[in-house]
Amino acid sequence: MVFTPKYRRGPFTDDILKRCEAVMRDVCADFGTELREFNGEHDHVHLLVHYPPKVALSRLVGSLKGVSARRLRQEFPDHIRKYLWGEHFWSPSYFAASCGGAPLAVVKEYIANQKRPD
């Protein structure tokens, strides 16, 4: 999955990405799913999530985005306010694709290498 913040503004720092990953891992655990890989840049995040068919993807995405937005705004209010205004943190859209045919190691490597070298 790929999530972008509203207006594709770039609010993510290394600390915010680490906290976002921790929050999203907790949400996944609550759903009985597993966040296998997480990475991001200043303007988007990538997630590799293993979830059973009984989990509705739209509900999982809604919780991931909702809980992370609330927690990140609470914990980094001044920084987030510089980049995002109003009530929205995430763009309402998201990208989700199945990777059932690709070897998991290849997908994990792709996500791990998303961060551009500084």
UniProtKB/TrEMBL annotation:
It comes from the Bacteria. InterPro entries: Transposase_17 (IPR002686), Transposase_17_sf (IPR036515). One of its GO terms (molecular function) is DNA binding. SMART domains: Y1_Tnp (SM01321). Residues 2-114 form the Transposase IS200-like domain. It holds the Pfam family Y1_Tnp. Signal peptide: none annotated. GO terms for biological process: DNA transposition. This is Transposase. It comes from Streptomyces roseochromogenus subsp. oscitans DS 12.976.
